[in-house]
């Protein structure tokens, strides 16, 4: 029984501690194999040991709901986007109320003169208390509710800290305001010199402001993935048997259907052009600046735009299996990944809040008992000083920045990569790229265009028609890039078709068959020698002269008689030299790994600036060469076409597949490029390094913030300089830390691929 993935939208999460709680409670459910929760996307991806059904789905949702969060089946992009935008607006309104009331509150509590009495109470304090009530009970209600939900499930998160700090401050202030009005009121409240109404409104206001800015930034961070989702039309114009068209939902269109697409419209389903041609704008998916001319039989993809005329597309995929759908799925899967350091953060967050509460209590007890006697107490009494310290410590320690440090950068980085046709499959690939020092590249189709042509035919003992006919008949059974060039050349010269029996592929060597009772073969020199062909010194000299020109040679023989050879030229991509230069600039040495002969490979390498060439390597030997480089202490990036190089892509520290058209590319590689261009491989490395820099900067800031902020809030500088961090400042610092982490990650939105 295969494993399946269940994806849920999860609400009510505020920090890394919440993420850890959701993952813990879901992981404890039977049939759950693994779970990954993404805080910026408010989502959970759950790997099940059984097929997904309503029973297990409802059980998981009920478990999450019971723990105090919300959970629903993952929505489509539009409802989810609207929901996120609505939440952002709500956070903004609550923050606005708190901050509007904060200014008069702080004036009344700290600067206003005696205003006399109102209803028997100090008018100044009473008015401040009245202004604090809507902030505490309305703006801050979500903190209080979520805090009790967290405590109920036996955990502690950011909301617990906010709830404790504001409740302590609000309760003390109310009791101090009422002090002297009730005979039984303890002297500690009657004699109180300070209230903390300003702290309550500023804490809630600043935290909500931080949440609003954070939520707005998170919404922007997901723009890339949402724009990809919006590329695929919701409807398709299906051509019926009678020639009439009918608009149907895209998900209802089956493979082998005919779909009409008008000029300026977006292609809804992957397919091939049916008896037509057109210019297609693929920039939305690949980042290519120029339209691509397509003819009848050429493949077209969902999400691309028709620029001229009306076309008919014969669909080859369903709407949920298009290249675009696979890209979206790949990006979504990548965004829920976690770096090893983030897993450490999650473990720390699970115990962080209880430790902070304990530290706050210890600091409070210290300053309330003996500490206030050691200094010139700015608060008057030791108890009021202790309250200030407790409130500030609880507030500043909220682990929001830690929870966002890695995932928000990953969401932005993978999203912007997908926008430019660079598909990074997960955080593991990002981390691995960061430490790589060697990039191994294939020649044909990677450095070169992958569209070779016959440039010369050397005849030894036959006619041109004969050598081409034998070669083409054998190459009909081959998938090698050189095969199409030979077949095309044959079709231009003759229509003579030969029947060759028992055709066999010799990996890394060529093709062998039987013709008129003799062995017929096309391939490299090694294959020729195996079937009995002898090479004279004169021939070797002539062959060497040809390979020194950078051409590939396909020898053709009949029995032990060498008929001649076919020289094939594959143009070097315009961007290859720039790509090599840029890779070297990034500190990565580039090696060429090819099955071609050494002379030809060396000629190509010299033209583009590659110093190390490993030639004559069979497809099954490429993985071994990669392994040897790793055993020598290198961390290796392999760039190939995703088909012939599948084993090498898998064994390399990072595999980069050129072109995403094949399933093997999506499966074997860590990074998939939508364009067949080596410059994009280097761009993906640059993006990976840029994303990792943001993650490391974020984590450094988050850890530094808490490392420095908590001691300051506990009053470590009070004996030295008399400085005591006020609760309002602590709240502002906490909000600023989260916003700083998110803003630092959003810088990645302006990243752009390397240009030629």
Describe the structure.
- 51% of the residues lie in helices and 17% in strands.
- It has 756 residues and is an alpha+beta fold.
- It folds into five domains: 71 residues, Alpha-Beta Plaits (2-Layer Sandwich), CATH 3.30.70.100; 269 residues, no CATH class; 86 residues, Calcium-transporting ATPase, cytoplasmic transduction domain A (Distorted Sandwich); 134 residues, Rossmann fold (3-Layer(aba) Sandwich), CATH 3.40.50.1000; 117 residues, Calcium-transporting ATPase, cytoplasmic domain N.
- The strands form six sheets. It has a seven-stranded mixed sheet with strand order 16-28-27-26-17-24-25, sandwiched between helices. Strands 8-7-9-15-10-13 form a six-stranded antiparallel sheet, with no helix packed on it. A six-stranded antiparallel sheet has the order 18-23-22-21-20-19.
- The radius of gyration is 34 Å and the shape is elongated.
- The two termini are 48 Å apart.
- The model has no long low-confidence stretch (mean pLDDT 83).
Précis, in short:
With 756 residues, the protein is of the alpha+beta class. 51% of the residues lie in helices and 17% in strands. It starts with a strand and ends in a 10-residue tail after the last helix.
Number of strands: 28
Total helical elements: 29
Q: Give the low-confidence spans.
A: none
The SS-based structural class is alpha+beta
Strand content: 15-25%
Which word captures the global form?
A: elongated
